[in-house]
Write a sequence for this structure.
């Protein structure tokens, strides 16, 4: 990462993505553990039918890496 504005924008998108997953899991009565959140994002990212912005795709990939400990 280099550009501070891009870094901030990516970070905000990462937080939005994680927040959305956590809230959806709560609504389903599931405990939002980090490895489960990573799995949900991995599965969602694999769905090629959903069009995502480059920013969202990158944010999802980075969150997966951070939560899965890779």
């Amino acid at each position: 990462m280099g550009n501070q504005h891009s870094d901030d924008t990516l970070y905000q998108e990462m937080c939005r993505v994680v927040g959305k997953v956590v809230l959806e899991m709560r609504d389903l009565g599931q405990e939002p553990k980090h490895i489960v959140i990573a799995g949900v994002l991995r599965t969602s990212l694999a769905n090629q039918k959903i069009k995502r912005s480059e920013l969202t795709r990158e944010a999802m990939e980075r969150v997966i890496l951070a939560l899965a400990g890779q």
In short: Residues 6 and 40 are 25 Å apart (CA to CA). The chain has three helices and no strands.
